[in-house]
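Pilot study result, target chain (140 residues):
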Amino acid sequence: MHISETEITVRYAETDQMGVVYHANYLVWMEIGRTQLIQDLGFSYAQLEKDDILAPVTNANVSYKKPLRYGEKAKIRTWIEKYDGLRTTYGYEIITETEEVAATGFTEHVTVRRKSFRPLSLRKAHPEWHETYEKMKKQV
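Predicted structure:
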């Protein structure tokens, strides 16, 4: 299984009054990890959008384990959890500098046509993308 890793440094603006990362920022970091995974696999979400295809989030889940604070470094680990040609579930771990799990989560996406938001098979729209995701799914 290919696991993409992206390192970030917690910015002051990402923390809340308690001095820890505000919960919604983990979703932003998951998006950073997801786009990096797509890039690692040789594709571009921007190109998908140019082809009038979108992959909106249909479900998101984050479980918080350990707080992160301003100035700390963290790694976002991202992989393909499930894929069926239309829907993709990405898995995530946010890891601290000391290799502790700060958060885990997943996001579910469906590919759709931009104008109609009607579901679209990635197999038909981008066969090479589909084949790569099929291979990644088998490795899970």
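One observation from the pilot: The helical segments are 25-40, 45-50, 122-125, 127-138. A full batch analysis is planned for the follow-on phase.
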